[in-house]
## 1
Amino acid sequence: MDKGTVLYGVDPLILLDHYEIDYHHSYAQDSPFFVGLTKGQLLGSRCTACGYTYATPRAHCMGCGAATSWLALPLTGLVHTFTTCHYGGEVFLKETPFTLILVEFDGADTLFLSRIKGIRPDAVRIGLPVVARFAKAPAFKVTDVWFEPADQA
Amino acid sequence: MRPVYMVGGGITKFAKAHPEKDFRLMVKEAYDYTLHDVPRLSKDMIDGAVGSYFSDHFTRQLKAASMVQDYLGLCPKPSKRVEGGGATGGLCFQSAWEAVASGRMNCCLAFGFETMSRVNTWKGNEFIALASDTNFDFPVGGFYSGYYAMMVQRHMYEFGTTVEQMAMVSVKNHANALHNPYAQKAKRLTIKQVRESPMVATPLTMEDICTMSDGAAVCLLASEELAGKVCDRPVKITGVGSGSDAMRMADRPHGKVILLPHERESDYQHLKYPGVHSFRGGRMAAKLAYEMAGIRNPLEELSFVELHDAYTSSEIQTYEDLGLCRYGEGGRFVESGIPFLPGLDYGLELPKQGRLPVNPSGGLLACGHPVGATGLMQAVFAFWQLQGTIGKHLNDERLQVRNAKRGLIHSHAGTGTYITASILEAP
């Protein structure tokens, strides 16, 4: 139904201008990571030439440019850093407060961004052991994995 | 390459919203101000332009820079748009420098703008967060304040930086802006007020974070010959540098510090670098700019710095990247009073107040951050400082750095992905 034109002001003339769009987004070479999440796997990647290991996967090494191969990361790690967001982008406002962490893993040279749940925000600390949890009904998004304190495992 | 000079600049008043002016008119105002300030320069001497604005989402007008080009009456001269997140303005400045340094142009206009008021603040934050990896980062809770908060949590862990030290940056920049009529958010604050303002992303509060703005700024750069003809006090650009880092913070390496001439490897025996606590791209930008300008010790050889303080924390991190102090000493650097202006009362005890003023304009925290304009705004303030014309342009002498000889401007994109540093010198 045509709702007509919404005006916010007349001098200057300000009106509501709606815009939305659907994309056909391909994860392309990163696809196996998102499929892995549906099987309870956290996939990183390792350079086939220099061995540098990425906790957030990429198909080619940032250092030497060689192809990487997939690698299952351990499901436990440590909090490298954290923050609790009390505001956020509009799509995430309803989820606030939420706590973001970067996770470090044994055997990986880089980190992984995720959320931590199941803990009071003010109890999150650098070095806290955490364990990966996976969504039962996957949305094929990176949020299909999150972390909880390992001592509750 | 040949020498390049800045001969003019202009800024619009930065504000939360300018619904009565679109981006074309904002740039036009800053442009007319600039030409008025350089009366011997006529429009036909301008060989071309580089435009900068960050987000097509905010503008929802692709090729908006083309509309500015025709509004200013500069068609059919060469023109292009430069975009690089928060560093858009700094990259635009350096692109205009390249046009003149290469000999392609004798005079190049750099113009930048942003109109961020057309969506609400939280939609705006969402747009900005699209400048993070949309597969791995944005969906987790894409929010730039959250990313910087994680970076400074690690800085605090590594170096013992405190939230009170960060708050001192906020007190300084907001108080400086009380003397800057172009600023959006000038006010007197205490450390306690900064800490008691609403928490955004721990440990950053509302007063640790810059606001969104509408605004525009322009710079005119010229060859030595033209600069001498049209400008009584042209300012020479003696160094440009830029750097980059991986889009995802998670991908940043943990290796060795990139050293500046006054530093040694033994200064950083146990520091894993840059991790998420430092901006490797900022260090690279500074190193290249210092090498070109022949600067060996920035703290001794600079008169002031206008740096990208989108967050109080990133100002502290940037002191270190620029080598104004060693990595890890940024918190103590602000406590010492060095980056404050001399002669202003901040309500703080500052033993070395005013040795090297940082963000005398008030920076992004107080001036606002209309992204495409911001890096050019810094250049204009630096230009006026080095000309000694702050009093004329701000109607207030108090922000004028006495005997300003050499200034550094620093522009920075999302979590340090693009960073520029440029050195300007007095005539």
Note: Chain A has a mean pLDDT of 96.
## 2
Amino acid sequence: MAKRLLDFRDRTAVAGVGYTPFTKDSGVSTLTLACRAVLSALDDAGLGPGDVDGLATHRVGDSAPPTLVGPALGIRDLSWHLDQFGGGSVSHAVVGQAALAVAAGVAETVVCYRAINARSEFRMGGTGRALPASPEVQYQAPYGLFAPPQQYAMYARAHMLKYGTTAEHFGRQAVTQRANAVKNPRALMRAPITLDDYLASRWIAEPFRLLDCCLETDGACALVVTTAERARDLRRPPVLVSAAAWGGGESHLSGGPADPTTTAAAALAPRLYGQAGLGPREVDVAQIYDCFTYSVIVQLEDYGFCPKGEGGPYVASGATALDGELPVNTHGGFLSEGYVHGMNHVAEAVSQLRGDAGDRQVPGAEVALSTAQPGYVLPATSALILRKD
Amino acid sequence: MRPVFQVTTDRDSAPWWERTGRGEFAVQRCDACGRARLPARAFCPACRTERWHWEAAEPEGTVESWIVNHQAFGAGGGEPYVVVMVRPAAVPDCLLHGGWRAAREPVGGERVRGVFTPGAGGLTLVDWEPAGE
């Protein structure tokens, strides 16, 4: 079914990005982190809080909402705001919805942010925190299955069984991303690793080892979204939002796809590429949601970079390295830069398209794909295609 | 051993758990289109009607995947344990999780049979063992 958002393509732009440092213990509240990242992104764009008329975030009951961040920064009149429930699945949806609001004229300058103390306060890995209050939990938690590494390991094994994907394939992506993080001053993990280091890392939940898993991180990241016209008058080169797409996901309820080895990205991708008017061959650099190594491999297939089932060999061929045909997670990703639940993927895509990614810059990058959690665990996903102006 | 978690059932699921307590593996059968569904909820996803009845099914399925957990994510979860993902024969478009009741690891695609096991909070859980061993 062909769907087109009328006149949406390239009408909005990311005009600024901002970060706090990524740490294991920020020592401050998520409200403080959010304010720091928002101000940093505005400064990057050459704007101030007085220019903001929209704020958007996503959270799972673990962070400061726009209704707190706005007043904390003296922003009194928000003409649009979004406080979306959800984790990584909706990270890119937040940016897409901000772009839609701007394109529709509801707001002119929206700051999207994600602020988390995911190591020192609310651990995404689940260690020590209460179970989520969701009906699905009763069918998993009594069996000792409730943390994302466990849930994802289950899907990863299904892919290994069906397609012959191996630990070495997972490991190659982990090693590749660490090599990128070595070139990223912002990254939490900057010591190079080898495939042997990967294979020697301790088991978390077989088939996952420690180095299959992303970093629980304290930190915040923010992006300024405005009209393309306005962005062209601001401090930084604009990065155009060419497409934003939303999708469903895998559920354990009957009536859904019940295929643990194909994600909702497979259905979303044609909508996304169609909106942008291009295909996977035109993508120069990709930031692919890497809560775990496996999520990169399955999405490489579902976003059409290689045939179904060949994500592992594609990674092993070196294609996803910085000098490969599709550099992936050039900042080191969640595995090695830090895990701000998705927003730092969009920020890195912006950096690559502005050409300011330093030692890890992909030469001549003009089109970037950035993706959210592909719809496991929470049956929703989202993605963006960004383009150099 | 797996950690002990007490979970809350809900208004859709309570009768299903009541049946596992009696050693019954129940599915919902849609009165309008005849489709079986799991886990419990009001609407048939195929024909969107609310009328249905419980039907006892054989607790059988095939292994779709499994994990061997090592990290202690919850209290009492220090020793490795196996959790399987099973595709039930009675509702093949559902994927259920359960404990693994055998000394060896599962094999992909192998046939398994449900084992009713007392869990926390008075719930009777459905674990899985190799069929015919």
Note: Residues 12-122+214-388 of chain A form a domain with the Peroxisomal Thiolase; Chain A, domain 1 fold (CATH 3.40.47.10).
